[in-house]
Amino acid sequence: MSAELADKVAVVTGGAGGLGRGIAERLLAEGAKVVVGDVAAPPEPLGGDAIFRVTDVSDIDQVGALVATAIEQFGGLDIMVNNAGVSGTMHRRFLDDDLADFAHVMGVNVLGVMAGTRDAARHMAEHGGGSIINLTSIGGIQAGGGVQTYRASKAAVIQFTKSAAIELARHEIRVNAIAPGNIRTAIVSKSASAEDRERIEAFEAGIRAQMRNDRPLKREGTIEDVAEAVVYLAGDRSRYITGVVLPIDGGTVAGKVLPTRPKSDTTQ
After folding, report:
1. What family does the database annotate (predicted)?
2. Catalytic member of 37, 80, 88, 150
3. What is the pTM assigned to this prediction?
């Protein structure tokens, strides 16, 4: 590792496991000091210059306390990664959706991102700027069936990110979004209803097959792919980039996959 982020201080929400943990570990590997917030402690400590604080990002007071922890314990805040997110329940049809989880999904996925951006920016504006990275999804870019509240929340993150980037640029604060797609994390299985969970292996296999068919690059994306993009947007290499939504999706949102035609046999 190049220690690209040496002496930088970062906050990562939803960082106890999955994508968030991968991001936190990558930031640590690049020399950053990291404060991780999540609703439950990680099963294994992150180690190094890492601090964990129990945080429900749908509670804006807890988000503020998480940001304050970074400033108090490490002396500042340079990088804010608003990663925490939930998918909500996947129903067979939208007509069957009782919208019972609407407030929860919006609270975590939208309010948490807005509060994290605001609280980090309040410090950054007085200390020379910084980088804020919001995690959205290709589900917020492309329309589709299923998990409609989740899709709406991720679309909201995209619009908010661009708007915040415009407003905060005067303070040398860059605000960008990363849109993962086709990344193997637990959020896919968590979107299944109780009925689906009884057949979770078949459910996930079907989802993965559809994802593979929809993307030009056939290898599966990894948490490391997303974490690399976070490092890039967090550091000085991206100092002239703000208001961008970067898909990490193997080309899925670029367009339809061209059909593969079998080669004709020219031998006689």
Report:
1. Belongs to the short-chain dehydrogenases/reductases (SDR) family.
2. 150
3. 0.91
